Amino acid sequence: MLLSKFDEDNLSITDVNNILFSIPRDDLKNGDCIWVFCSRLSIDERLEVAVKLFKDNRAPFILFSGGKGKKGVVAEAKVMKEKAISLGIPEEAILTEEESYNTTENVLCSMLVLERKFLLQNIKRLIVVSSPFHIQRLSLTISRYMPRWIDYSFCYDEDSPTSRKNWLNDPIIKKRVEKEANGIVYYAKNKYIDDKEILIN
Fold first, then answer.
1. pTM, entire model
2. pLDDT in tens, 115-141
3. Domains, the chain, ordered by start
């Protein structure tokens, strides 16, 4: 069933699981850069994944992408950069994108940073880090806007509060995850992201 065919106002728990969590696991391949999508609500979770990937030599650089958002004063990327340095990541290995306000802008603004650092035609693989419930929208946004020759490894904490096995445990997280599923259906219907065939379990 295509994403655009779901009724975003009447999604069941099964629908949410099918929409958000039919996502790839980390394929363990190395890349040119670890691309972290920042969120004030998930800083420590996403940072922990990124730092481990860097220390495991999966890529020689980390790009933190995230602007000020609606409420923040300091850009999310700057906050994560400072935390990463405190955890032993060399400053010269860190890139930042501090202008974006949403996932689409994360991708578009990061593209310029990647172009200036590597030249896009030289990039073969990016290692993408976010929270489990965000990976679906992220992968569809990337497929819409990023160059087709770049491959991706998608990495996330499978024990995250927003994972398939945990999101129903907390009413605040539950609302956040349901909102994400609603949004993905809306974005697919309005062609903000690529539509996708979702396997119905």
1. 0.94
2. 999 999 999 999 999 999 999 999 999
3. 26-157 (3.40.50.620)
